[in-house]
Specification:
It contains 8 helices and 11 strands. By secondary structure, it is α/β, with parallel strands linked by helices. The chain has a single domain, classed as Purple Acid Phosphatase, chain A, domain 2. A hairpin with a 4-residue loop joins β10 and β11. The relative contact order is 0.19. The structure holds zinc ion (ZN). The site of zinc ion (ZN) has 7 residues, from loops.
Length: 243
């Protein structure tokens, strides 16, 4: 029986989306989890999401929201909506939880798979990969054949061939032997590719397939939590559009 790994990230305190994703992973026979970071930020359930991710006992890397929540850094570079939630989230978590976020690594390699929130060239700089050239830079520093990441909230496969980097739209896809892959697993809690459904990836290690899962969840429940917490209305609205 082949091992199936669920790779999920950019959960962003969205408990309604996270619960649906984990139920789906169970029903798909997943036996291991990897997390590409940004457990917190944007939505209203940081404590609950953190507790669930920790209970999975999985490799997890630090996202920029995890990083900012767990540090005293000023938030001038952050967009104002994100910054408001970072401030709010700091007040929701215990010192022990903040320490956990603080101690998460920027990248992890396990069983031939690398995890990073943004890119392997400078994981702590949280650069965005939207084109082949940015992916090319990552590949120079990616030592394993497969690396999963997030950060843009837009699922995508980047394939490195001798002739260059190619982009493959998210779909059920079989990895070719010997080629390197840098795979964006999309976002559980705040998708931004125009499809509001929660996203994650199942990697079948024996079959060498990646399968992008898209799942409907109770968006209005997540929106109600944002409003009840007094977080910016724009963050509730965008969930409905997947932007
Ligand atoms: Zn994010």
């Amino acid at each position: 029986m082949g091992k199936k790994i669920a790779i999920l990230g950019d959960i962003h305190s969205n408990i309604d989306a996270l619960e649906v994703v984990l139920e789906d992973a169970q029903s798909q026979g997943v036996d291991e989890y990897f997390c590409t970071g940004d457990i917190v930020g944007y939505n209203a359930c940081p404590h609950e999401c953190l507790e669930i991710v920790r209970s999975l006992n999985c490799p997890v890397v630090k996202g920029n929201h995890d990083y900012y929540v767990a540090s005293e850094r000023n938030l001038e570079d952050f967009n104002p909506y994100a910054a408001a939630v970072v401030e709010w989230t700091r007040g929701q978590l215990s010192d022990e939880e903040l320490q956990y976020l603080h101690d998460m690594p920027f990248s992890v390699t396990k069983a031939g798979i690398t995890l990073v929130h943004s890119t392997m060239d400078r994981p702590e700089a949280f650069g965005y990969v939207f084109d082949n050239q940015q992916a090319e830079t990552n590949f120079i520093y990616q030592k394993t054949l497969v690396c999963f990441h997030g950060h843009t909230h837009c699922p995508m496969i980047y394939e490195k061939q001798m002739s260059g980097v190619y982009r493959i739209d998210p779909q059920e896809f079989k990895l070719a032997p010997g080629r390197k892959y840098f795979i964006n697993v999309g976002s559980v809690g705040q998708p931004r590719d125009g499809d509001p459904r929660a996203t994650y990836v199942i990697y079948d290690v024996a079959e060498r397939t990646v399968n992008f899962r898209r799942l409907e969840y109770d968006i209005s429940a997540a929106q109600a939590r944002i409003r009840a917490a007094g977080l910016p209305e724009r963050l509730a609205e965008r969930l409905a559009y997947g932007q």
